[in-house]
Design goal:
The protein is mostly helical. It has one domain (about 20-105). It has helices at about 10-15, 20-35, 40-70, 75-105. It contains four helices and no strands. About 75% of the residues lie in helices and about 0% in strands. It is elongated, with a radius of gyration of 19 Å. It starts with 7 loop residues before the first helix and ends in an 8-residue tail after the last helix.
Length: about 110
């Protein structure tokens, strides 16, 4: 079995794939800070959503590289199962960010007066 050594160029290219999300999160956080006084409760939820998404931009590539290093001497089926489990874990966290952003849309809104 061939040994898999940590490859920093792969980790960097994996981070590059996160750049669009990274830029949107940074822009979102700038808008949130600028709009904080207008809607503090919505801004709080949006900041949480964008903050978690921003953290995932670093955690996903790092987690994948850690998995590769930890599983380098295991059977391919074990690596596939671990990779699938990690993918599900990241998917749950991404869903959480969408939930937080959805809450932000409706937080602090008042019903329309007839």
């Amino acid at each position: 079995m061939q040994s898999i050594t940590p490859n920093y160029s792969v980790a960097f290219s994996m981070f590059l794939m996160q750049l669009p999300t990274f830029f949107v999160c940074v822009a979102g956080l700038i808008v949130v800070v600028a709009s904080w006084k207008k809607s503090p409760s919505g801004s709080l939820w949006a900041a949480l959503g964008f903050g978690v998404a921003l953290a995932l931009c670093f955690a996903v590539p790092l987690g994948q590289q850690i998995l590769v290093r930890l599983m380098e001497d295991t059977e391919p089926i074990s690596r596939a199962k671990a990779s699938s489990a990690l993918g599900l874990f990241w998917s749950i966290w991404r869903a959480l960010t969408y939930g937080l952003l959805l809450i932000a849309v409706y937080a602090g809104r008042r019903p329309l007066q007839p």
